[in-house]
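This part of the workshop introduces the protein records we will be handling. An example says more than a description, so a record of this kind follows:
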Amino acid sequence: MTLIRLFVLTLLSIAMNANAQELPFREVSDYPKKYTAGTTAARTIEGLGFRYYWATDSLRDEDLSYKPSEDGRTILETLHHIYEMSFMIKNATLKEVNVLPDTVDFDMMRKITLANLEVAHAKLMSVDDMSDMNVIFEGKNRRVEYPFWHLLNGPIADCTWHVGQIVAFRRANGNPIATGISFFNGTAKP
């Protein structure tokens, strides 16, 4: 087993056994010591993780089934979409091929999504160059790789977009996010 796989499995194990107060991204960490491509991308992932943490905190069953219109996705369906993209984000930083993840319940989905973002964040903090971190898809007779740039305007931006939808949907359903959260400072005092 490679060291990276062991690291990932350890982080996932910790995340799956943690209660809600111990999940990553409750707050944003201190600034990186220097600006690099890696620390900048890592901070973007951290901002996403922080927003996701609070958007999904204290969701009720009736929130998970809420959708704004007959044609729209429920919050749970939107969370599943973010969950799938969190694997793309993590896999690109680990240079691994994407495969569709298993379907899990909301609590496990939340923990795994945050753990995936934590793995990506940690990996990006230790690199200066992401030119070999590609989004990789494989089929029966074909392998396609997209550069890290696609991760920025694709899954990372898309996840941030959907986290905002969850915040709006839960507010419309009568369950706004906790007060005392500063998205600008990355702090929480709910």
The chain has a mean pLDDT of 91. The longest strand covers residues 135-138. The CA atoms of residues 68 and 169 lie 7 Å apart.
